[in-house]
Amino acid sequence: MIAAxxxxxxxxxxxxLAIGSQNAFVLRQGILQRHxxxxxxxxxxxxxxxxxLGVIGFSAVMAVFPGxxxxxxxxxxxxxxxxxxxxxxxxxxxxxxxxxxxxxxxLRAAILTSLLFTWLNPHVYLDTLGLIGAVSTGFDSRIxxxxxxxxxVFASFIFFFSLGYGAxxxxxxxxxxxxxxxLDSAVGVIMWLLAxxxxxxxxx
Length: 204
Prior knowledge:
The protein is mainly alpha-helical. It has one domain. The protein has 9 helices and no strands. The longest helix has 29 residues, at 36-64. The termini are far apart.
C-alpha cells in the first residue's frame, strides 16, 4: 500500500510540476485572488477523472476514440493561441493592474476556462492517460492500483491548491501596470509556445 501510494503521488507530482497553460492560468487567478477555490477544485477533479481513466487503461480509451489526439491537439492549439493573444493584448494595453482591482470574471466563466485549459490540452492526456497509466501497470492487484490512483489524485489536489493559494504571496509585487505587463506577456509566450508545439506535433 505505502509503495503504491508513494509511487502514485510522486509520479503525478513530477508530471504536473512543469509550468504549462493550466498552471499559468491557476497562478494568474491566484494572484488576482478570484475564484481560487473553484478553479483549483475544477482542475484537481478533472485530473482525478483523467488519472482514473489512465489507470483503467489508456489503450482501451484510444481503441474507442482513435482520432482523439489529433482532434484535441487542434482544438487545444486554437484555444491556446486565442488566450495567448488576449494576454498579449492586455500587456500592450497595460490594463492588467486595472483588471486586478476592477470587475471580476464570473464564477461560471472561471470554471469554464479551467475546464478548457484541462480538457483541451493533449499534454494532460499524455501525462495522465499515458505515463501515469503506464506506471500503474507495475502494480498487479486492484487494491494496489487503487492506492496508486489515490496517491496520484492526492498529489494533484496538493499541487493545485498550493499553487492557487500560494500565489497570493506574489500579489504584493503586482501592484503596478508594469508588473502585470510582464506577467501577461510571460503567460502569452507560454500559451503560444505550447500552441506551436501542439501544431508541430500533429504535423510530424
